[in-house]
């Protein structure tokens, strides 16, 4: 229903003839039911498949539509990037108004991917000042279908704490809600960065910005991204103040555009028709203890092995259990909802290590039913994914009451039983994974190192690239006769 409602008012207002050398045509769309939000789309002559939605700044009271909006069209179109300038409505204390406009703009670009020659997995958002707050809000709070694949943040408002940011933006976005500490914390977006789930970002600021202090805004966002292991770049120019946008009077304009271009050119891109692989699991999938796990964890290293024909996503979350009565159930996580929304072609489930803890395994009678619930949810997806159940890697030491005996005698037999009941494939990591050279496991003897993650990636990649097993017996003969 949301998609149909969205498309209902996305009718072109006009088609303009090319006015710039690199722009093939322009399209202007109504972006909100009241018609006050609009999306102006600059389509390049030679589309690369990338698209960017731009959010001008203005303190959530007005919009700087030229130097933080339209003036960027030639720059992006010359690189084959479809550029969309968003006129979003002012919140006047109701944050949901601009958020709805930005969410809808991202969805519109993806819905128009075929017509505009856009890769739906290469749609970014760009924001300036308060527009940077809107862009970072979309990057950290939006549901999966409206979350961008990358973010470009210019001298962004990130905090909603009036003591460390631009007060006018706080007043505009939160209104009377700015006295609510939990609301301020939630929309101070460095608090909302999520490991693996928040998209890569580039942040560009001036050290002498007296309007939006870099130390408590852009730099804090970078710090949160780096701590999460998410890819992020930051450039701080010595001077320039606030609000320079695309103005060539900014002393570092040429350097800035060169650095932004370089970052964009090196941003990983997934093919639109690549096989989508969802890696579901606990801290071992997440990459706990591995620096920059989004680059060095097992799903990321498996992406390197599999190449461009696969699109691998890490949906691992530390400490999570298959058991819904466990201390941290996976199926209550945002990562689980994102994994379903990803609509994967292949799923690798690697849960069970934390379920072996004494406090969790007392609910062992429910482990099979909870795993079946997860499998049923995945089987119901439109993509009808190929599902692999992976056994946990060995627990080389009893730690935090994680017990390898429980894994071997309790968890693994149930995994095989669920696999048999559902005709699923099993990846026996417990047997295949080893620490023979002493370099595969961290000191806790539970979590793999970067080298161990590589070993896991190699094992899993070999299994998921095998041909589908052929059905046997009477049912197989009946299927062949039907063909």
Task: Give an overview of the whole structure.
- The chain has helices at 2-8, 73-77, 96-111, 113-116, 130-141, 167-174, 181-186, 218-228, 253-265, 283-286, 293-296, 298-306, 334-341, 358-361, 367-379, 404-422, 429-432, 450-464, 473-482; strands at 12-16, 23-30, 38-44, 51-55, 82-87, 123-128, 150-154, 201-206, 232-237, 275-281, 310-316, 346-350, 386-390, 425-427.
- It is α/β, with parallel strands linked by helices and 483 residues long.
- The chain has a nine-stranded mixed beta sheet with strand order 1-2-3-5-4-6-7-8-9, with helices on both faces.
- A hairpin with a 6-residue loop joins strand 1 (12-16) and strand 2 (23-30).
- The protein starts with a helix and ends with a helix.
- The model is unreliable at 1-20 and 479-483 (pLDDT under 50).
Q: Layout of SSEs?
A:
Layout: H1 2-8, E1 12-16, E2 23-30, E3 38-44, E4 51-55, H2 73-77, E5 82-87, H3 96-111, H4 113-116, E6 123-128, H5 130-141, E7 150-154, H6 167-174, H7 181-186, E8 201-206, H8 218-228, E9 232-237, H9 253-265, E10 275-281, H10 283-286, H11 293-296, H12 298-306, E11 310-316, H13 334-341, E12 346-350, H14 358-361, H15 367-379, E13 386-390, H16 404-422, E14 425-427, H17 429-432, H18 450-464, H19 473-482
Parallel strand pairs: 4-5, 4-6, 6-7, 7-8, 8-9, 10-11, 10-12, 12-13, 13-14
Antiparallel strand pairs: 1-2, 2-3, 3-5
Helix pairs in contact: 3-5, 12-18, 15-16
